[in-house]
Write a structure and sequence with these properties.
The chain has one domain: F1F0 ATP synthase subunit C (F1FO ATP Synthase, Up-down Bundle), CATH 1.20.20. It is built from three helices and no strands. Helix 1 packs antiparallel against helix 3 and helix 2 packs antiparallel against helix 3. The longest helix has about 30 residues. It is rod-shaped, with a radius of gyration of 20 Å. It comes from Petralouisia muris. This is ATP synthase F0 subunit C.
């Protein structure tokens, strides 16, 4: 049985951490779907406020998406930045 070196352990933990960081994309996806559903419902109730509802929804979705992008950035950093060099 081979011993695991420190470099191999760091690479393995980086891969696991990257996988966990990508899970951060689930929350924004769910939140954006809920926001779009509520916005569609609001436009159905009040079609005259469509532009206000749409702009507010898009702003909220842009803010929510930053969480997913941060998770993706962390995953990319964990996979491609070599801490041992």
């Amino acid at each position: 049985m081979d011993n695991i070196t420190g470099a191999e352990l760091i690479r393995a933990c980086s891969a696991i951490g990257a996988g966990l960081a990508v899970i951060a994309g689930i929350g924004p996806g769910i939140g954006q779907g809920i926001a779009a559903g509520h916005a569609a419902s609001a436009v159905g109730r009040n079609p005259g406020a469509k532009s206000d509802i749409t702009s507010t929804m898009l702003l909220g979705q842009a803010v929510a998406e930053t969480t997913g992008l941060y998770g993706l950035l962390v995953a990319i950093l964990l996979m491609f930045v070599q801490p041992l060099k």
